[in-house]
Amino acid sequence: MLGTRLIRFLFRPADRRKLLISIGAGINQIPLIRGAKNAGYSVISVDQSSSAPGLLFSDLKIQESVHNHDEIYNKIQELLVDGTIVGALTRSYGEAVRTAAILNERLHVPFIPVSRIEDLLDKKRMKTVFHKAGIPSPSHRMFDPLKDAKDYPFILKPAKGHAKHGVRLIKGGADLDAYVAEFPQDGSKSLIKEEYIGGDEIIAAGIVADGVYHLVEITDKLTTSHPFFVDIRHQAPSKYFSRWDEIEQLGQQVTDAFEMKTSPLFLEIRFDGDGNPFIIEAVPEFGGEFLADVLIPAHTGYPFIENCVRAISRCGFVPPQKRKSRCAVIVQYITGTNGTLISHEPVPPAHKNGMIFCRMFKEIGASVKKPENNHDRIGVIAAKGSSIDEAIIAASAIQDALQIVIKPSRKSK
Predict the structure, then answer these.
(1) What residue ranges of the chain have pLDDT lower than 50?
(2) What share of the chain is helix, strand, coil (3-state, %, to 5)?
(3) DSSP string, 317-377
(4) What is the radius of gyration, based on Cα positions, of the chain?
Protein backbone atom coordinates (compact mmCIF):
# COMPACT_ATOMS: atom_id res chain seq x y z
CA MET A 1 0.00 0.00 0.00
CA LEU A 2 1.29 3.46 -0.82
CA GLY A 3 2.38 5.58 2.13
CA THR A 4 0.55 8.73 3.20
CA ARG A 5 3.41 10.96 2.14
CA LEU A 6 3.37 9.60 -1.40
CA ILE A 7 -0.42 9.90 -1.54
CA ARG A 8 -0.14 13.57 -0.57
CA PHE A 9 2.27 14.06 -3.46
CA LEU A 10 0.09 12.22 -5.96
CA PHE A 11 -3.01 14.13 -4.90
CA ARG A 12 -1.67 17.58 -4.18
CA PRO A 13 -4.29 20.38 -4.32
CA ALA A 14 -3.17 21.60 -7.74
CA ASP A 15 -4.28 18.29 -9.30
CA ARG A 16 -7.70 17.99 -7.65
CA ARG A 17 -8.19 14.58 -9.18
CA LYS A 18 -11.65 13.11 -9.30
CA LEU A 19 -11.96 9.45 -8.44
CA LEU A 20 -14.50 6.67 -8.72
CA ILE A 21 -14.49 3.75 -6.28
CA SER A 22 -14.89 0.36 -7.95
CA ILE A 23 -16.27 -2.17 -5.47
CA GLY A 24 -14.50 -5.25 -6.78
CA ALA A 25 -11.66 -5.70 -9.27
CA GLY A 26 -12.38 -9.07 -10.85
CA ILE A 27 -12.52 -9.63 -14.60
CA ASN A 28 -16.16 -8.50 -14.76
CA GLN A 29 -15.26 -5.18 -13.09
CA ILE A 30 -12.79 -4.22 -15.82
CA PRO A 31 -15.47 -2.63 -18.09
CA LEU A 32 -16.54 -0.43 -15.16
CA ILE A 33 -12.95 0.62 -14.47
CA ARG A 34 -12.41 1.38 -18.15
CA GLY A 35 -15.72 3.25 -18.31
CA ALA A 36 -14.58 5.49 -15.46
CA LYS A 37 -11.27 6.09 -17.23
CA ASN A 38 -13.09 7.00 -20.44
CA ALA A 39 -15.15 9.49 -18.46
CA GLY A 40 -11.93 11.13 -17.24
CA TYR A 41 -11.75 9.76 -13.69
CA SER A 42 -9.07 7.97 -11.75
CA VAL A 43 -10.12 4.72 -10.10
CA ILE A 44 -9.73 3.28 -6.62
CA SER A 45 -10.40 -0.46 -6.80
CA VAL A 46 -11.33 -2.58 -3.80
CA ASP A 47 -10.80 -6.34 -3.83
CA GLN A 48 -9.81 -8.99 -1.35
CA SER A 49 -7.42 -10.54 -3.85
CA SER A 50 -4.12 -8.79 -4.49
CA SER A 51 -4.00 -10.43 -7.94
CA ALA A 52 -7.47 -9.37 -9.13
CA PRO A 53 -7.07 -8.50 -12.85
CA GLY A 54 -8.85 -5.15 -12.57
CA LEU A 55 -6.14 -3.84 -10.26
CA LEU A 56 -3.81 -3.57 -13.28
CA PHE A 57 -6.08 -0.86 -14.71
CA SER A 58 -6.61 0.99 -11.40
CA ASP A 59 -4.82 4.01 -9.97
CA LEU A 60 -5.12 3.01 -6.33
CA LYS A 61 -5.80 -0.36 -4.76
CA ILE A 62 -7.38 -1.30 -1.47
CA GLN A 63 -7.03 -4.95 -0.50
CA GLU A 64 -10.18 -5.66 1.45
CA SER A 65 -13.31 -7.77 1.20
CA VAL A 66 -16.07 -5.89 -0.62
CA HIS A 67 -18.34 -6.82 2.31
CA ASN A 68 -16.29 -4.83 4.84
CA HIS A 69 -17.66 -1.36 4.13
CA ASP A 70 -16.39 0.11 7.42
CA GLU A 71 -12.81 -0.97 6.68
CA ILE A 72 -13.04 0.29 3.11
CA TYR A 73 -14.32 3.68 4.24
CA ASN A 74 -11.61 4.00 6.89
CA LYS A 75 -8.85 3.16 4.38
CA ILE A 76 -10.22 5.65 1.88
CA GLN A 77 -10.29 8.37 4.53
CA GLU A 78 -6.75 7.45 5.50
CA LEU A 79 -5.40 7.53 1.95
CA LEU A 80 -7.18 10.40 0.23
CA VAL A 81 -5.73 13.60 1.61
CA ASP A 82 -6.55 15.52 -1.58
CA GLY A 83 -8.88 14.81 -4.48
CA THR A 84 -12.62 14.34 -4.80
CA ILE A 85 -14.49 11.04 -4.84
CA VAL A 86 -17.41 11.25 -7.26
CA GLY A 87 -19.04 8.02 -6.13
CA ALA A 88 -18.85 4.24 -5.77
CA LEU A 89 -20.18 1.67 -8.25
CA THR A 90 -19.94 -2.08 -8.71
CA ARG A 91 -20.56 -4.64 -11.43
CA SER A 92 -21.17 -7.27 -8.79
CA TYR A 93 -24.39 -8.06 -6.93
CA GLY A 94 -25.77 -8.46 -3.42
CA GLU A 95 -23.42 -7.33 -0.68
CA ALA A 96 -21.25 -5.38 -3.12
CA VAL A 97 -24.29 -3.22 -4.01
CA ARG A 98 -25.00 -2.72 -0.32
CA THR A 99 -21.39 -1.59 0.22
CA ALA A 100 -21.66 0.86 -2.69
CA ALA A 101 -24.83 2.31 -1.16
CA ILE A 102 -23.24 2.70 2.28
CA LEU A 103 -20.11 4.37 0.89
CA ASN A 104 -22.12 6.73 -1.31
CA GLU A 105 -24.28 7.74 1.63
CA ARG A 106 -21.22 8.45 3.78
CA LEU A 107 -19.67 10.43 0.94
CA HIS A 108 -22.94 12.36 0.36
CA VAL A 109 -23.27 11.02 -3.18
CA PRO A 110 -26.88 10.48 -4.40
CA PHE A 111 -27.38 6.77 -5.09
CA ILE A 112 -29.88 4.36 -3.53
CA PRO A 113 -30.82 5.08 0.10
CA VAL A 114 -29.22 2.52 2.41
CA SER A 115 -32.64 2.14 4.04
CA ARG A 116 -34.03 0.79 0.74
CA ILE A 117 -31.21 -1.56 -0.29
CA GLU A 118 -32.67 -4.57 1.51
CA ASP A 119 -35.94 -4.01 -0.38
CA LEU A 120 -33.99 -4.57 -3.61
CA LEU A 121 -31.83 -7.49 -2.43
CA ASP A 122 -34.59 -9.53 -0.78
CA LYS A 123 -37.04 -10.81 -3.40
CA LYS A 124 -39.95 -11.06 -0.96
CA ARG A 125 -39.50 -7.45 0.15
CA MET A 126 -39.09 -6.38 -3.47
CA LYS A 127 -42.39 -8.01 -4.42
CA THR A 128 -44.10 -6.36 -1.46
CA VAL A 129 -42.89 -2.93 -2.63
CA PHE A 130 -44.10 -3.69 -6.17
CA HIS A 131 -47.61 -4.50 -5.02
CA LYS A 132 -47.86 -1.56 -2.63
CA ALA A 133 -46.79 0.79 -5.45
CA GLY A 134 -49.21 -0.74 -7.96
CA ILE A 135 -46.36 -2.08 -10.13
CA PRO A 136 -47.54 -5.12 -12.12
CA SER A 137 -45.74 -8.22 -10.82
CA PRO A 138 -46.69 -11.90 -10.43
CA SER A 139 -48.55 -12.69 -7.21
CA HIS A 140 -46.40 -14.31 -4.53
CA ARG A 141 -46.22 -15.57 -0.96
CA MET A 142 -43.86 -17.51 1.22
CA PHE A 143 -44.05 -21.17 0.26
CA ASP A 144 -46.03 -23.41 2.59
CA PRO A 145 -45.68 -27.09 1.57
CA LEU A 146 -48.94 -28.00 3.33
CA LYS A 147 -51.02 -25.39 1.49
CA ASP A 148 -49.21 -25.01 -1.84
CA ALA A 149 -48.08 -28.53 -2.72
CA LYS A 150 -50.93 -29.13 -5.20
CA ASP A 151 -51.34 -25.62 -6.57
CA TYR A 152 -49.48 -26.24 -9.87
CA PRO A 153 -47.84 -24.76 -11.87
CA PHE A 154 -45.83 -22.19 -9.92
CA ILE A 155 -42.30 -20.85 -9.55
CA LEU A 156 -40.20 -21.64 -6.49
CA LYS A 157 -37.19 -19.45 -5.73
CA PRO A 158 -35.01 -18.51 -2.76
CA ALA A 159 -35.82 -15.16 -1.16
CA LYS A 160 -32.21 -14.22 -1.80
CA GLY A 161 -30.12 -15.47 -4.69
CA HIS A 162 -28.65 -14.79 -8.11
CA ALA A 163 -27.74 -16.40 -11.45
CA LYS A 164 -31.03 -18.38 -11.44
CA HIS A 165 -29.69 -20.58 -8.63
CA GLY A 166 -32.61 -22.42 -7.08
CA VAL A 167 -35.25 -20.96 -9.43
CA ARG A 168 -37.58 -23.69 -10.72
CA LEU A 169 -40.89 -24.09 -12.47
CA ILE A 170 -42.86 -26.64 -10.45
CA LYS A 171 -45.38 -28.36 -12.73
CA GLY A 172 -46.25 -31.29 -10.50
CA GLY A 173 -45.34 -33.49 -7.56
CA ALA A 174 -42.26 -34.95 -9.22
CA ASP A 175 -40.78 -31.46 -9.75
CA LEU A 176 -41.50 -30.53 -6.14
CA ASP A 177 -39.95 -33.74 -4.77
CA ALA A 178 -36.83 -33.17 -6.90
CA TYR A 179 -36.57 -29.57 -5.69
CA VAL A 180 -36.87 -30.50 -2.01
CA ALA A 181 -34.26 -33.25 -2.47
CA GLU A 182 -31.83 -30.79 -4.05
CA PHE A 183 -32.39 -27.90 -1.61
CA PRO A 184 -33.30 -29.53 1.73
CA GLN A 185 -31.38 -26.90 3.70
CA ASP A 186 -33.45 -23.99 2.44
CA GLY A 187 -36.57 -24.65 4.49
CA SER A 188 -40.04 -23.34 3.66
CA LYS A 189 -39.45 -19.96 5.32
CA SER A 190 -36.76 -18.97 2.81
CA LEU A 191 -38.67 -19.92 -0.34
CA ILE A 192 -41.04 -17.79 -2.39
CA LYS A 193 -43.92 -19.26 -4.33
CA GLU A 194 -44.60 -17.07 -7.36
CA GLU A 195 -47.32 -17.08 -9.97
CA TYR A 196 -46.01 -18.44 -13.28
CA ILE A 197 -46.29 -16.05 -16.24
CA GLY A 198 -45.60 -18.13 -19.31
CA GLY A 199 -45.10 -15.59 -22.11
CA ASP A 200 -42.16 -13.79 -23.71
CA GLU A 201 -39.40 -12.39 -21.52
CA ILE A 202 -37.40 -9.22 -22.04
CA ILE A 203 -34.70 -7.26 -20.25
CA ALA A 204 -35.09 -3.49 -19.99
CA ALA A 205 -31.70 -1.88 -19.36
CA GLY A 206 -31.70 1.67 -18.05
CA ILE A 207 -29.93 4.34 -16.04
CA VAL A 208 -31.41 6.33 -13.18
CA ALA A 209 -29.98 9.86 -13.15
CA ASP A 210 -31.22 12.45 -10.64
CA GLY A 211 -34.28 10.30 -9.96
CA VAL A 212 -35.26 9.95 -13.63
CA TYR A 213 -35.24 6.53 -15.31
CA HIS A 214 -33.76 6.56 -18.81
CA LEU A 215 -34.45 3.41 -20.83
CA VAL A 216 -31.38 2.55 -22.92
CA GLU A 217 -32.17 -0.83 -24.51
CA ILE A 218 -34.75 -3.61 -24.65
CA THR A 219 -33.55 -7.13 -25.40
CA ASP A 220 -35.49 -10.33 -25.96
CA LYS A 221 -34.36 -13.20 -23.74
CA LEU A 222 -34.40 -16.89 -24.60
CA THR A 223 -33.91 -19.59 -21.98
CA THR A 224 -33.59 -23.34 -21.68
CA SER A 225 -36.82 -25.25 -21.18
CA HIS A 226 -38.54 -26.49 -18.00
CA PRO A 227 -37.55 -26.71 -15.21
CA PHE A 228 -34.43 -24.50 -15.06
CA PHE A 229 -34.93 -21.64 -17.56
CA VAL A 230 -31.24 -20.73 -17.79
CA ASP A 231 -30.46 -17.70 -20.00
CA ILE A 232 -29.03 -18.84 -23.33
CA ARG A 233 -29.51 -15.80 -25.60
CA HIS A 234 -30.21 -12.07 -25.47
CA GLN A 235 -30.99 -10.31 -28.74
CA ALA A 236 -31.70 -6.84 -30.06
CA PRO A 237 -33.67 -5.25 -31.59
CA SER A 238 -36.51 -6.51 -29.43
CA LYS A 239 -39.90 -7.41 -30.83
CA TYR A 240 -41.24 -5.15 -28.05
CA PHE A 241 -39.45 -2.00 -29.24
CA SER A 242 -42.83 -0.42 -30.07
CA ARG A 243 -43.67 -0.50 -26.34
CA TRP A 244 -40.65 1.58 -25.37
CA ASP A 245 -42.57 4.41 -23.68
CA GLU A 246 -44.70 2.01 -21.64
CA ILE A 247 -41.64 0.07 -20.45
CA GLU A 248 -39.78 3.28 -19.61
CA GLN A 249 -42.74 4.34 -17.48
CA LEU A 250 -42.53 1.03 -15.60
CA GLY A 251 -38.87 1.80 -14.94
CA GLN A 252 -39.85 5.19 -13.53
CA GLN A 253 -42.42 3.55 -11.25
CA VAL A 254 -39.71 1.26 -9.87
CA THR A 255 -37.33 4.20 -9.49
CA ASP A 256 -39.90 6.14 -7.49
CA ALA A 257 -41.00 3.17 -5.39
CA PHE A 258 -37.45 2.48 -4.17
CA GLU A 259 -36.48 6.17 -3.95
CA MET A 260 -33.53 5.68 -6.29
CA LYS A 261 -31.45 8.73 -7.21
CA THR A 262 -28.65 7.37 -9.39
CA SER A 263 -27.97 3.77 -10.43
CA PRO A 264 -28.02 1.31 -13.29
CA LEU A 265 -31.43 -0.41 -13.24
CA PHE A 266 -32.25 -3.60 -15.13
CA LEU A 267 -35.81 -4.92 -15.24
CA GLU A 268 -36.72 -8.53 -16.00
CA ILE A 269 -40.20 -8.46 -17.55
CA ARG A 270 -42.55 -11.21 -18.74
CA PHE A 271 -45.69 -10.79 -20.83
CA ASP A 272 -48.81 -12.86 -20.25
CA GLY A 273 -51.02 -14.29 -22.99
CA ASP A 274 -52.79 -10.95 -23.39
CA GLY A 275 -49.55 -9.01 -23.78
CA ASN A 276 -49.64 -7.45 -20.31
CA PRO A 277 -46.19 -6.83 -18.77
CA PHE A 278 -45.23 -8.15 -15.32
CA ILE A 279 -41.96 -7.22 -13.65
CA ILE A 280 -40.29 -10.37 -12.35
CA GLU A 281 -37.31 -8.63 -10.81
CA ALA A 282 -35.57 -5.25 -10.68
CA VAL A 283 -31.83 -5.11 -10.01
CA PRO A 284 -29.75 -1.97 -9.32
CA GLU A 285 -26.78 -3.56 -11.11
CA PHE A 286 -25.12 -3.68 -14.52
CA GLY A 287 -25.87 -7.38 -14.69
CA GLY A 288 -23.54 -10.17 -15.75
CA GLU A 289 -25.05 -10.99 -19.12
CA PHE A 290 -22.70 -8.80 -21.22
CA LEU A 291 -25.50 -6.39 -22.07
CA ALA A 292 -24.11 -3.18 -20.57
CA ASP A 293 -20.56 -3.65 -21.81
CA VAL A 294 -20.98 -5.59 -25.08
CA LEU A 295 -24.48 -5.79 -26.59
CA ILE A 296 -25.69 -2.25 -25.91
CA PRO A 297 -22.58 -0.40 -27.19
CA ALA A 298 -22.45 -2.68 -30.27
CA HIS A 299 -26.15 -2.29 -31.06
CA THR A 300 -26.75 1.38 -30.22
CA GLY A 301 -23.31 2.97 -29.97
CA TYR A 302 -24.28 4.23 -26.51
CA PRO A 303 -21.53 3.90 -23.84
CA PHE A 304 -23.79 2.57 -21.10
CA ILE A 305 -21.23 2.09 -18.32
CA GLU A 306 -19.44 5.37 -19.00
CA ASN A 307 -22.73 7.23 -18.73
CA CYS A 308 -23.54 5.50 -15.43
CA VAL A 309 -20.26 6.92 -14.13
CA ARG A 310 -21.16 10.35 -15.50
CA ALA A 311 -24.61 10.11 -13.90
CA ILE A 312 -23.28 9.36 -10.42
CA SER A 313 -20.63 12.08 -10.76
CA ARG A 314 -23.38 14.46 -11.95
CA CYS A 315 -21.09 15.67 -14.71
CA GLY A 316 -21.55 15.13 -18.45
CA PHE A 317 -24.31 12.51 -18.39
CA VAL A 318 -25.79 12.07 -21.89
CA PRO A 319 -29.35 10.66 -21.92
CA PRO A 320 -29.92 7.86 -24.45
CA GLN A 321 -31.99 8.38 -27.57
CA LYS A 322 -34.95 6.25 -28.53
CA ARG A 323 -33.56 4.94 -31.78
CA LYS A 324 -33.84 1.58 -33.50
CA SER A 325 -30.56 0.37 -34.95
CA ARG A 326 -30.32 -1.00 -38.47
CA CYS A 327 -28.20 -3.92 -37.27
CA ALA A 328 -28.91 -6.84 -34.94
CA VAL A 329 -26.73 -8.04 -32.06
CA ILE A 330 -27.02 -11.19 -29.97
CA VAL A 331 -25.27 -12.52 -26.89
CA GLN A 332 -25.39 -16.30 -27.11
CA TYR A 333 -24.19 -18.74 -24.45
CA ILE A 334 -22.36 -21.98 -25.04
CA THR A 335 -23.74 -24.92 -23.10
CA GLY A 336 -22.74 -28.55 -22.92
CA THR A 337 -23.59 -32.01 -21.63
CA ASN A 338 -22.45 -33.77 -18.47
CA GLY A 339 -18.76 -34.54 -18.67
CA THR A 340 -15.28 -32.98 -18.82
CA LEU A 341 -14.10 -30.19 -21.10
CA ILE A 342 -11.24 -31.81 -23.02
CA SER A 343 -10.25 -29.13 -25.52
CA HIS A 344 -11.24 -26.23 -27.71
CA GLU A 345 -9.57 -24.14 -30.38
CA PRO A 346 -8.35 -20.59 -29.59
CA VAL A 347 -11.00 -17.88 -29.57
CA PRO A 348 -11.00 -16.24 -33.03
CA PRO A 349 -10.18 -12.53 -33.44
CA ALA A 350 -12.94 -10.02 -32.82
CA HIS A 351 -14.79 -8.55 -35.84
CA LYS A 352 -14.12 -11.73 -37.82
CA ASN A 353 -17.24 -13.10 -39.51
CA GLY A 354 -19.52 -10.92 -37.40
CA MET A 355 -17.94 -11.70 -34.03
CA ILE A 356 -17.91 -8.89 -31.45
CA PHE A 357 -16.79 -10.78 -28.38
CA CYS A 358 -16.09 -14.31 -27.23
CA ARG A 359 -14.98 -15.77 -23.93
CA MET A 360 -14.70 -19.30 -22.56
CA PHE A 361 -15.72 -19.55 -18.90
CA LYS A 362 -14.53 -23.08 -18.18
CA GLU A 363 -10.90 -24.17 -18.25
CA ILE A 364 -9.63 -27.33 -19.94
CA GLY A 365 -10.18 -30.24 -17.57
CA ALA A 366 -13.15 -28.63 -15.83
CA SER A 367 -16.32 -30.58 -15.14
CA VAL A 368 -19.30 -29.38 -17.17
CA LYS A 369 -22.98 -30.30 -17.15
CA LYS A 370 -26.30 -29.47 -18.68
CA PRO A 371 -27.13 -25.98 -17.41
CA GLU A 372 -29.18 -25.77 -14.22
CA ASN A 373 -28.15 -22.17 -13.46
CA ASN A 374 -26.14 -19.47 -15.21
CA HIS A 375 -22.85 -20.62 -13.68
CA ASP A 376 -23.08 -23.91 -15.63
CA ARG A 377 -22.61 -22.21 -19.01
CA ILE A 378 -19.33 -22.93 -20.78
CA GLY A 379 -18.76 -19.68 -22.65
CA VAL A 380 -20.32 -16.76 -24.49
CA ILE A 381 -20.33 -15.34 -28.01
CA ALA A 382 -21.57 -11.91 -29.07
CA ALA A 383 -22.21 -11.56 -32.80
CA LYS A 384 -23.59 -8.97 -35.19
CA GLY A 385 -25.57 -9.15 -38.41
CA SER A 386 -28.06 -7.30 -40.57
CA SER A 387 -30.82 -9.33 -38.90
CA ILE A 388 -31.29 -11.54 -35.83
CA ASP A 389 -31.11 -14.65 -38.02
CA GLU A 390 -27.83 -13.48 -39.57
CA ALA A 391 -26.35 -12.80 -36.14
CA ILE A 392 -27.41 -16.27 -34.96
CA ILE A 393 -25.77 -17.86 -37.99
CA ALA A 394 -22.58 -15.92 -37.26
CA ALA A 395 -22.58 -17.04 -33.62
CA SER A 396 -23.14 -20.67 -34.62
CA ALA A 397 -20.22 -20.51 -37.07
CA ILE A 398 -17.97 -19.08 -34.35
CA GLN A 399 -18.99 -21.84 -31.94
CA ASP A 400 -18.25 -24.45 -34.61
CA ALA A 401 -14.80 -22.90 -35.11
CA LEU A 402 -14.06 -23.33 -31.41
CA GLN A 403 -14.32 -27.13 -31.89
CA ILE A 404 -15.29 -27.72 -28.27
CA VAL A 405 -14.72 -31.32 -27.15
CA ILE A 406 -16.47 -32.69 -24.06
CA LYS A 407 -15.81 -36.20 -22.78
CA PRO A 408 -19.16 -37.51 -21.56
CA SER A 409 -19.43 -38.72 -17.99
CA ARG A 410 -20.39 -42.35 -17.41
CA LYS A 411 -23.85 -41.35 -16.19
CA SER A 412 -24.60 -39.48 -19.43
CA LYS A 413 -23.59 -42.35 -21.72
Answers:
(1) 1-15, 81, 163, 186-188, 413
(2) 35, 25, 40
(3) --PPP----SSEEEEEEE---SEEEEE-PPPPPTTSTTEEEEEE-SPTT-EE-S-SSGGG-
(4) 22
